[in-house]
Amino acid sequence: MTTPAASPPASASASASADATRDSLEFTGPTLRQAIALIMIMAAGGAVGYTVWASLITNFAIEIASFDGFQMGALHSIREIPGFLAFTAVFFVAVIREQKLAIFFLAMLGLGTALTGFFPTFWGIAITMSIMSVGFHYYETYAQSLQLQWFPKDRAPVLLGWVVTTTSIAAILTIGGSWLAFKIFDLSYLVVFLVGGIICVVSAMIGFGGFETLPRGAVQRTGIVLRGRYWLYYALTFIAGARRQIFTVFAGVLLVEKFNIHIEDMVALLLLNEVLNMAFAPLVGRFIKRFGEGRTLVIEYAGLIPIFILYGLVTTPWLAIALFILDHLFFKLAFAMRTYFQKIADPEDIASTAAVAFTINHIAAVAVPFVFGLVWLISPALVFFAGAGMAVGSLVLSMLIPRMPAVGNETRLRARAGSKDNKNPAA
Prior knowledge:
Number of domains: 1
CATH class: Mainly Alpha
Oligomer: single chain
Strand content: under 5%
């Protein structure tokens, strides 16, 4: 005879019910507003620190430190190593709240940016960039985890769209300020890097001192979580990491090295990109909410394929600039991957999987800049044709995202398998 499992004590049931009720209410009303405000302040500060670094580093390295395409590729390979190690972020969660970790690494991002202009050599840039990169990658890991934990699923696409808009507004002000610094006030790279880094650190200080510790939401697993049913998310993340480097590293090098785009013009171009992003991001959020993540990502990858091909064939600066703008816009569709994961994930897996996803994203990202830096010396066009091939792979995978992703309905293949099982049940 099988002994029935003991029922939990009434007090335990009441406690569990109270906990469940509390968790269901934690991210509504004032608590949700505080969470959104903190996320937005950190997003704005991180955007300032990273935008200053990212918008100036190519010109700074080529004009001041005399880098070539291979050195730029090597530099960005070094930059991606902390991203490759981002899986270790989950271990810190066991002893320190994610909110505090996000704020700490945001300050580190600002510190690395502030120091960059003081060391215009390969190793000087590599070391300050490493500080910046550790801060950036770990901050982004924790920030993305907190967003998925704190934002309600039904509002997440729109709220994430507003996070992108906030980032774009901060980037617009940063790039506009950088343009004025160089064009009007004739300031040095050192001063602009320093000011941008300080603003980022100040935003971290506001996040630390201006907000109480917010609820955790679901208790997060503190080990490495790898689940077979997340395989499509992992695959999309892996290819995105490789493809992103083609744009991040080599599109800028193409404009500066081949078409002699100077720092003032490059800053103006980035400013235009961010203005367009500010208007575009909320529309993306609403599009995802209405039409789903699968269709959104199909549009992204279908658009990136011809863009990369044309990058390899372009001979005029105006076409290259147009491609750069379109490239930037299409990449903003990518946050559909995050809402896709939010819908298929166990709530307890979000922190661990955010860390693992950063590592998966950077497996290819570490190697691509170095390897393709060598390819660049032979043929820049081959670099962009390879990017088109990666976009084709992502397009095929994105077609496997179901219309209504959820736990148990992670891919179209799984849905078909479940349908066959229902029609042909085992005897």
